[in-house]
Known about the structure:
The protein is an alpha/beta fold. It is built from 16 helices and 15 strands. The chain crosses the membrane at residues 242-262, 269-289, 295-313, 358-376.
Amino acid sequence: MRSLLTFILLGLFYPSILLLTNANEKTIIYQIDIKKEIDNTTRLYLSNGLIEAQRLKAKAVLIHLNTYGGLLEAADSMRTSILYSPIPVYVFIDNNAASAGALISIACKKIYMRKGANIGAATVVNQTGAAMPDKYQSYMRSMIRSTAEALGKDTIIQQGDTIYKWKRDPRIAEAMVDERVVIPNLIDTGKVLTFTADEARKWGYCDGIAESTDEVITKYLGFQNYKLESYTPSWFDNIKGFLMNPMVQSILIIIIIGGIYFEMQSPGLGFPSIASLIAAILYFAPLYIDGLAQNWEILVFIAGVILIVAEIFIIPGFGIAGISGIICIIAGLTMSLLNNTDFNFEGVSGTEVGRASLTVLMGIGISFVLSIWISSKIGTKGIFKKVALNADLEKAVSTPIFNNLIGKEGIAATILRPSGKVNIDNELYDGVSESGFIEKGQRVKVIRFENAQVYVETI
């Protein structure tokens, strides 16, 4: 009887208890701060933040934005993540949403701005601030226009007529990029569009003016009883984002190629090969973790290095192995920057391919020029002669024992192209050919000794 009474009471009061519990439960709003240049670091902030927001079952994501712009490829990735986020994403522009920041803001469901904030000026520029050629502007125009179109249209009934009006006019978005776009009563030709908060609200590019994120959440989003969770970047995010910067990637490529070049000049495991190995790890590791670099792409790069090593130490001359190695290295470095799966490049745009190729080829070109320049400066007449330490070392190794080698004859213990090993009086020395390519076993004569190496010519 007592059990039956308890069951009846629970049945009567359980709905009230459940409602009381739900009333006390706070809605989770997730905030992501982006208050710096748009780059791969901020892209990681947004990507990781959206994943964390889904894990916490947040009802909304609010981006607290203040940026003058940044990398277009990072902004493109960020706006795509926002458009396809299962959780609605809103943005509060604290002060500036210029260039890439404007593209990211337009992708959000609603835009809120602080009084005095600005949005616009999305022209693609280079490192000096000069506008890029029209093919880059054309791509940006298309991207920002399609982003505005993605928000769709409002259905308005006026005097019995149904009117469909863009929530954000794509032509206005395009005017933020192209100075040739004219919007009557808004912008004339020759000017790139930038909105103030009031102007943006008038033309549909601001959904409300607020002074804080709390005001946005309570006044405009309508969440009174909420819990604010924020994304806290880790040191790993910052390092990973830094290493994925195109400029840093180019520098790493310079070190990789430069290390291989100098190792070819002076065979043997030493500083150049170690520097090249470390640079390769720093180049591929963040790309692999981010899912861009596939296993096979890294293996293509490694195969290229192995082919070049084989060309240096095993196969005489410079032929198929060397050329194939260079192609594999360039292919591995380039394809690791492209988002593909199992050699499927269907989703990769021509712009992405061009950008990846430019990053790799620029790094290789600069590395090649620097390597030749540095090689020409090393020696008794080069820049290192000015360093006292070098002078002392040269004196130390220029002992009578080594000076006595001048004029002696021996054989090439390895291929000299131009560096390798020579056998003089049954002793191995680091040798450099003054007669071009020298085959293994060919007789040579020592003509001078410098920098701990014997310089030889064919007899």
